[in-house]
Amino acid sequence: MSNDETTNIDDLLLENRKFPPPPDFQERSLVAGTQLYDEAARDDEGFWARQASELLHWDTDWTTICEWDLPYAKWFVGGRLNVAYNCLDRHVEDGRGDKVAIHWEGEPGDTRTITYGDLLVEVKKFANVLKSLGVQTGDRVNIYLPMVPEAAVAMLACARIGAAHSVVFGGFSSQALADRINDAEAKVLITADGGYRRGEVFPLKGAADEALANTPSIEHVVVVKRGGNDVEMKVGRDHWYHDLMADVSDDCPAEPMDSEQLLFLLYTSGTTGKPKGIMHTTGGYLTHVAYTHKYVFDLHPDTDVYWCTADVGWITGHSYIVYGPMANGATQVMYEGVPNFPGNDRFWSIVEKYKVTIFYTAPTAIRTFMKWGIEEPAKHDLSSLRLLGSVGEPINPEAWMWYRDNIGAGTCPVVDTWWQTETGGIMISPLPGATTLKPGSATFALPGVSAEVVDDGGQRIDHGGGYLTLTRPWPGMLRGIWGDGERYRETYWSRFSDRYFAGDGAKLDADGYLWLLGRVDDVMNVSGHRISTTEVESALVSHPSVAEAAVVGANDPTTGQAIIAYVTLRGGSQVDEGDLRNHVAKEIGAIAKPKTIYFTPDLPKTRSGKIMRRLLRDVAEGRNLGDTTTLADASVVDELQRRAADSPSED
Ligand code: PRX
């Protein structure tokens, strides 16, 4: 393990606080003891099968629970179900059509209240729109939208007709969108004129148009009107959502789909420059997200108001805004904008307004709230909250305690949930009515999930630091990488034999609690978003003035990691740091902008020519450098250290 991970382990050893479930929480909770763990330990497949049949409606029963031919799993083989039916129709048929599905709040303060009945009609109509545009079962549809209810409608409409969606986060650039559309060969793009962010309209259609110049597979574009900004509509290709919806039938039966029908692709960064299209299918995925959403959040659908602050463009939005909560018939809040518009208390005013009971956010947001001060949450009545969740990156014990004390009134359990785009749903997390919490620990693998920490040689360890692996298939697991079976095997199943390698370091303490320690590969985690160092390097060297670039993620008190770039310019070239940062934003998206760029005549390399990233990370984090004797030219590092000490980093 590298130096920084060892430091983490030392820090964590000091963390001895324990918080058992509060008695009144435990009394009302769905699970207060070990029964689910015991059941799953006896027969994990049987356990998952019980979840699948209790939580979902199947049109045809499966014949085999799990077919496991490493690294390929199939779940509930032979079973048929419709995801949209499970998320909408059955709630309406059961008399819950008037129940609020989404309390939507736009950033400017406009609101929409959408019941399950409303959502069902909208989804049926939009499914018919998609069919009228030629979309068929098995096709791919791209979605590039702000946080508006139409994003959920579009996803569920695809699911209803068995088309796979590929959602691209609205903050990604036109280039990133084009790459993803082309890789998936999507037929239709659903976008918006623009959305609201920090009080202004950000244009989406313009970026989509740039992408569309190079996406031959797209036949039609559907545009949701949200920002009211001017857009160009190409006749024959582009259609307004409201026009198409005006006179389409709302009769669209939910056809049962095969359990292994592709539900969606979601692109995520790996260690190379090319994002991976992670494949998720129907029956197993829905079982996994419904089960975890119910038990990790101790969901009482009749009384809870749930709010997950993620964007639908990420896996958290897919699994814990759209599919999990809706399969469970939850009432939720969906918010369009940033947490500091018009003031730093916006989230807390939303919690108060809708009487949110379960709140799920990311450590980077929590650390930002800490910076803004306790007076912001103190302005509001947060007494409706009963459970808090965290996701996306390791949560440091201080942030965990601050969250519990200042948002959770010192009593709400905090569930730190570890999972990945690839796992589909939560894997390691407390069950809040059953688990004694330790601040900063994701505690234990959930019932049905088998996680082990192994050493470098792949030997299981029961105590201490190592690599997080998963030893058994689980229903929500990725089914592959779109178009690249070899990369799938190589990335996840080759580092340790017979094990899924998550790419994360982890530690087991003396009580068997798991502590996640961050990525051990060249993937950075910036504000909970995965960005590959190689991707940013490729963006940098695509600038005509740049000869070579090395990118590292350095610890950052707010964003978890910050992107630090070391750049060598071509002979005679000059370029401004700001221009180069903007170039990266244009290539990938603003989330990938380096915080600091150091210009250097050379990069530190080993004698075999490999860039020494660990050393660059040490430089960026101001650490004393250890042994540099393997370097081809040690003076490069002296020079870099001098510069790092001289130049304050930019915010
Ligand atoms: O490094 C882990 C970190 O986020 C990675 C997965 O990123 P992504 O696929 O974008 O999904 C994020 C939302 C699930 C993991 O490999 N990560 C996620 N949750 C946690 C975490 N690290 C520590 N603790 C967590 N709770």
Supply the number of helical segments: 21
CATH architecture of the domain at 109-255: 3-Layer(aba) Sandwich
Global morphology? globular
- Strand count, sense and closure of the main sheet? 8 strands, mixed
Distance between the termini: 30 Å
Instruction: Could you tell me the CATH topology label of the domain at 109-255.
Output: Rossmann fold
- The tally of strands reads 31
CATH class (first level) name of the domain at 109-255 = Alpha Beta
Unreliable sequence segments: 1-12
Mean pLDDT, as a whole number? 93
Helix content: 25-40%
Question: Any overview of this molecule?
Answer:
The chain contains 21 helices and 31 strands. With 651 residues, it is α/β, with parallel strands linked by helices. The radius of gyration is 24 Å and the shape is globular. Among the domains are: 3-12 and 522-646, GMP Synthetase, Chain A, domain 3 (2-Layer Sandwich), CATH 3.30.300.30; 109-255, Rossmann fold (3-Layer(aba) Sandwich), CATH 3.40.50. Strand 19, helix 16 (397-407) and strand 20 form a beta-alpha-beta unit. The strands form eight sheets. An eight-stranded mixed sheet has the order 12-11-8-6-7-14-15-24, sandwiched between helices. A seven-stranded mixed sheet has the order 5-4-17-16-18-19-20, with helices on both faces. It is 33% helix and 24% strand. Helix 3 (35-42) packs across helix 4. Residues 268, 315-316, 391-394, 416-421, 442, 502-504, 516, 518-519, 525, 530 line the site of adenosine-5'-monophosphate-propyl ester. Adenosine-5'-monophosphate-propyl ester binds at residues 268, 315-316, 391-394, 416-421, 442, 502-504, 516, 518-519, 525, 530.
